Amino acid sequence: SYVDLAIPVSAVAAMSHKSVVEFSEHLVQSGIPLHSCQGGTDERLEAIRSLGKAQGQGAVLDTLTVWTAHRLGLLAELKSYFGRLLVPRSTVDEFMELRTKEDFNRGRETMTLGYQGEQAVRDVRTPQDTERMIGIFDQAIADIQANCEIMPSNGSDNLLFDDDRVGWIEVAKILDPIYL
After folding, report:
1. Spatial separation of the C-alpha atoms in residues 1 and 4, rounded to whole Å
2. Among 53, 90, 97, 105, which has the highest number of CB atoms less than 10 A from its own CB?
3. Angle at 24 between CA 22 and CA 27, to 5 degrees
4. What's the number of CA atoms in the CB half-sphere (13 Å) around residue 77?
5. pTM of the predicted model, to two decimals?
6. Which percentage of the chain shows pLDDT scores above 90?
7. What stretch of H or E contains 85?
């Protein structure tokens, strides 16, 4: 599980065949903290130095970073600081897929089953919950389009492992920002 392994949340989400947004939101709702760094003094000082050097140099945002920046209302400020914000096309596609999934349930109550520990948990969503989620994804897409340059990335779908093509959809979700 994510708690037991020291690997990026995007990799665990891809292995779970879930969007990194869905997976990270599930972790937070389940009370499981997301870990992005140790947060020690040396790490913070290095981040501050790097941030100072990066002003006006542009930045590439992965899916979870752009989602978090959007939810915190920081995309315009990040654009102002870095000058350019680049986002892989696969990130916007992922938000559009999540919105479409919500749209499929429009106007009706839905239910999902999951587990918290060993306890089965039922989640009932009203049509109003669905409309709220559609609105959240619409806002995220509009915010990204207004503040970021959506870029194609080439290469992640060509990744080979042991002479077999790795699941390119999952790999793209992880590696596309690197190719930018």
Report:
1. 5
2. 90
3. 110
4. 6
5. 0.74
6. 35
7. strand 85-88
